[in-house]
Design brief:
The protein has 10 helices and 20 strands. It is α+β, with helices and mostly antiparallel strands and 355 residues long. The strands form 6 sheets. The chain has a 6-stranded mixed beta sheet, sandwiched between helices. Strands 8-9-12-20 form a 4-stranded mixed beta sheet, covered by helices on one side. Strands 7-10-11 form a 3-stranded antiparallel beta sheet. Helix 7 packs across helix 8 and helix 9 packs antiparallel against helix 10. It is elongated. The termini are far apart.
């Protein structure tokens, strides 16, 4: 059953329609990437209305709905709704802008519009479980990511700036087959590594420092996300201890992953390990998140998570310790939840590496 068929099956009756406008969910439903377009889904028919920049390609590739050249969108919507006797419409409340929603509501004042989370939740529940093709694309993105990391390690030495390293990682991801980078590369060294999401600067990396690298490739719309922390020249006893604590928390959390466990409990496993080492107060963010068409999507692994893990989910496990004014360490893997536990998708070694 296609994504569109699944959404059709969720509609209440023949008078109920769904409007999908977010770029990521349009892609998820149609397999076609575009910066604009509107998907109208009825119980028995779907229409993808898209402008002239994309129309010809969409008409050739999109198979689960009728592709329509966009002219006057609200007038086209009126014809579509009228042809199918639509009286009730659900929209993506998490992504549709207030102005776009108001335009529809004002135009179709005799129709009822559902601006609750219903449609967004329906799509999220589908996206959270990865189909085999989705899993394969994520896995390929991860392999590209790892190869790019290996190439950067071959060149890495003191004197490079954080910006230069981030640029190299970006270049290698694209050279090795990535369609894009999943998010701006994080390259943070020395005191900057104590900032979880530091932006690369012109600072040169130096011997005796940690370098955190957080990066990922995009392949056919699907994303990878990994973090490794490497040392330049050598490490102090404190640096080695912190690294071992984070590596232990990463490993313990991966062992805990399985269907039925809560995201809150997995987060607590990692925190308990860091507590045993005396570093839990320096772990200042959640343990992980889902990865797929977006780098950060459901489910979540954190203190406040209400997620329960299920077979077919892909999540990150990324404990970190950040000591202000000194240094930070983060180790991040992606894992695929199976009926027996999980498969760690990140194959790059995690033993402390000193360049």
């Amino acid at each position: 059953m296609s994504v569109i068929d699944k959404i059709m099956a969720e509609l209440h009756d023949g008078s109920h329609a769904a409007i999908i406008t977010s770029e990521v969910n349009r892609f998820y439903a149609t397999g076609f990437s575009s910066s604009a377009g509107t998907l109208f889904i009825m119980k028995e028919r779907a229409y993808f209305v898209v402008d002239s920049r994309y129309y010809e390609n969409a008409a050739e590739t999109v198979r689960d709905c009728k592709v329509v050249l966009q002219e006057e969108l609200t007038e086209q919507a009126e014809r579509i709704f009228g042809a199918h006797g639509i009286r009730h419409v659900s929209v993506e409340n998490k992504t549709m802008t207030l102005s776009d929603a108001s335009e529809y509501i004002d135009k179709f004042e005799k129709m009822s519009f559902d601006t609750s989370a219903w449609l967004s939740d329906i799509i999220e529940k589908q996206r959270i479980i990865k189909a085999e093709t989705e899993f394969k694309n994520i896995e390929t993105a991860q392999r590209i990511t790892e190869r790019a990391y290996t190439k950067v390690l071959d060149k890495l030495e003191s004197g490079f700036t954080e910006k230069q390293i981030a640029t190299l990682l970006t270049y290698y991801i694209l050279e090795l087959g990535g369609d894009d980078i999943a998010f701006p590369v994080i390259a943070a060294s020395g005191k900057n590594s104590a900032i979880p999401h530091a932006k690369p600067t012109g600072k040169s990396i130096a011997d005796g420092e940690f370098l955190i690298l957080d990066f990922g490739a995009v392949y056919k719309g699907y994303r990878a996300d990994m973090t490794r922390t490497v040392a330049l020249g050598g490490v102090s006893d404190e640096m080695k201890r912190v690294y071992n604590a984070v590596q232990g928390a990463n490993g313990d959390a991966l062992k805990a992953l399985r269907p039925g466990i809560s995201g809150k409990l997995v987060d607590n496993v990692a925190r308990s390990t860091l507590e045993a080492w005396g570093y839990d107060k320096y772990f200042t963010h959640g343990l992980g998140h889902g990865v797929g068409l977006e780098t950060h999507e459901a489910p979540t692994l954190s203190k406040k998570s209400d997620s329960t893990l299920r077979e077919g989910m892909v999540v990150t496990v990324e404990p970190g310790v950040y000591i202000p004014g000194k240094f930070g360490v983060r180790i991040e893997d992606m894992a695929y939840i199976t009926d027996e536990g999980c498969i760690c998708l990140t194959k790059t070694p995690k033993a402390l590496l000193i360049k």
